[in-house]
Amino acid sequence: MTDRVYPSAKPNGTTTTTAPTATAANPAAATVKNQMYNPNRIPHRPTPTAYHRHNHRRCSCRRCFCMCCFWSILSILIILLLAAIAGAIFYVLYHPQRPTFSISSLKISQFNLTTTADDTTHLTAKLNLTLSTKNPNKKLIYNYNPISITALSNQVVLANGSFPGFTGSPNNITIIHSTLSMVSQVLDADSVSSLKSDLKRKAGLPVTLLMDTMVIVKMDKLKSKRVGIRVTCEGIHGPTPKGKAPAVASTNNAKCKVDLRVKILKWTF
């Protein structure tokens, strides 16, 4: 009986490998392996939705802030423009003017500097003042509070006085008479030296008058808030009295200036 020789399942010179078989058996593992070791692959990154939302919210807040600032500035400019237009119309229609003051006369009836035994100097003075005030407006009325009046000579107070309140009608002149006095006022050394130096002047003692008051301006049914004014009168020189007769001061070069304490008038109905 002849034996049959069967060829081997593994040919000579052929190397057996199991990788294709494993790959064919598990293709998912091969895919993961290729993905892990691919050097040219761009890594996948999730979309940063939270960052975009935060950035969008920040832009919205900034936009709202800019819009609020824009409309606020625009509103202020419109209000200022309307106020300027109203002021210009009021000025053209009524042409408001400040009241004027002028010194009619000033008489020094008493002026004494007395030095006592304790080496203190006392001032006693009395002045008679007459001045006039005019309302140059045609439709504006000035209502004055009581006026306080102070006479000075180079910042040294000589006498004080007052005048009751009154109404300045349009195109009307009001005459003011007031008596200013100072009784035995103690002066410091600098004030005494200043007064004695001023008394030696040929033109006489320089006198400055300060008047302070509050005024309300009326026009038809409109009226303003109380406005403070100060009247400063300078250019007055007067000698001291030699006897019982008062000395008449020179008021030819006297000029009075009116200054508003509040620049803005607030009108109410």
Structure, described:
InterPro entries: NDR1-like. It is a single chain. The chain has 269 residues and is of the alpha+beta class. The protein has four helices and 13 strands. The longest helix is centred in the N-terminal third of the chain and has 46 residues, at 49-94. It is elongated and about 85 Å long.
Question: What's a concise summary of this model?
Answer:
The chain is α+β, with helices and mostly antiparallel strands and 269 residues long. The chain contains four helices and 13 strands. Strands 3, 4, 5, 6, 8, 9, 10, 12 and 13 form a nine-stranded antiparallel sheet that branches. The chain has a four-stranded antiparallel sheet with strand order 7-2-1-11.
In quaternary terms, these chains amount to single chain
Major sheet size, sense and barrel closure: 9 strands, antiparallel
Poorly predicted runs are 9-25, 28-35, 263-269
Counting structural domains, the number is: 2
Helix share bin: 25-40%
Mean pLDDT rating: 79
Q: Provide a count of the helices.
A: 4
Structural class from helices and strands? alpha+beta
Strand fraction equals 35-45%
What integer value in Å does the Rg equal?
Answer: 50 Å
C-alpha end-to-end distance: 144 Å
Total DSSP E strands: 13
SSE run = HHHEEEEEEEHEEEEEE
Shape: elongated
